[in-house]
Amino acid sequence: MIKVATYTTVADLDLAGISALYSLTGLALEPLAGGAANSSFRATSDQGTHVLTILDNHDHASALRLAEHTEALFSLGLPTVEIVRNAAGDSVSLLDGKPILLKSWIPGRSVDELPPDLLPAAGALLARLHMLPTDRVPQLPAGTRRLSPAHEAAIVDFPDREFAAWLTARLAAVRDREAGLPPRAQVISHGDVFTDNLVVRPTGDLALLDWETVSLDSDLLDLGMTLLGLANAGGRLDAGRAALIVDGYTKTRPLTPADLAALPDHTEHAALIIAFHRYHRHNIRFPNPAKAVIHREMIAFVDSLEGAGR
Fold it and tell me: Which tens digit of pLDDT belongs to each residue from 71-87?
């Protein structure tokens, strides 16, 4: 039997129950596009506009951690959503056994491709995140964006043997190069700065959403993941877009020449992580013929890094 990812629809939701939880009147819900693991809705009521997220792939404990991280980052002044607590004062509610979050609505727009004039702002926003005190965000895991031992053990059984061999060899090579670098202090890393997690606000600045992959990790890996997310043009690194992001980052949080020289290797590492997850999700966990080969875009992207300062 083929497994499919299951999400929540408006028809599945108890509007009266949600209204009672948050003391809302005149509630109406509209599905929001995007989100690979949860279901989000624009929630309009007499009390204003919010985002309601059904955490389809969380239990109550992990939902509480997500809410705690989001609240901490908001309180530190980062432009992100504010958690709206329910009538009982809880950050997370349970509806039919599923955890839910109500969050502030950030006016603005989402774009498929961030325009060049906003790329320095994206780099600067990431730098601001990396400069926040790590002890002010409680219970941060370490390195959760990286492939786990269980992930890597699964590669050997991938039916696409050519891809499995390529991924194994590239992971070993990039890790060998990273091992020769001096140790880096860990920073608060977002891990998923792609356009679907950014809002262009009416003022022209950016807000950053979705803290499910937040962790303590290398600043260069997080910056490399951001280059993958925002400077990927048709499956290849766009050097001009990458330079704008890095320029915005370094004007806020300087990097050394050695850091910049190591950035292509960390960008490759980010691409290998995404390649694994695309293949595993769309060919193993939830087979989807329409997306069965999208992991191969990362092969071309890695090839395009060969001239990026190496």
Answer: 999 999 999 999 999 99
Q: What is the pLDDT of residues 266-286, one digit of tens each?
A: 999 999 999 999 999 999 999
Radius of gyration of the chain (CA): 20
Q: Which residues contact 13 (CB under 8 A, 6 or more apart)?
A: 29, 41, 54, 95
**CATH number of the domain that 169 lies in?**
3.90.1200.10
Boundary-marking domain end, from 104, 137, 159: 104
Three-state DSSP class for 70?
helix
Within-domain flag for 20: yes
Instruction: Mark which of 74, 104, 134 sits at the end of a domain.
Output: 104
268 CB-contact burial (10 Å; exposed 0-12 / middle 13-18 / buried 19+): buried
Beta-strand runs (E) in the chain: 28-31, 39-45, 48-54, 83-84, 93-95, 98-104, 187-189, 198-200, 206-208, 215-217, 232-233, 236-237
CA 172 to chain centre: 24
CA 239, CA 28: separation in Å to the nearest integer? Answer: 44
Angle at 138 between CA 134 and CA 143, to 5 degrees: 65
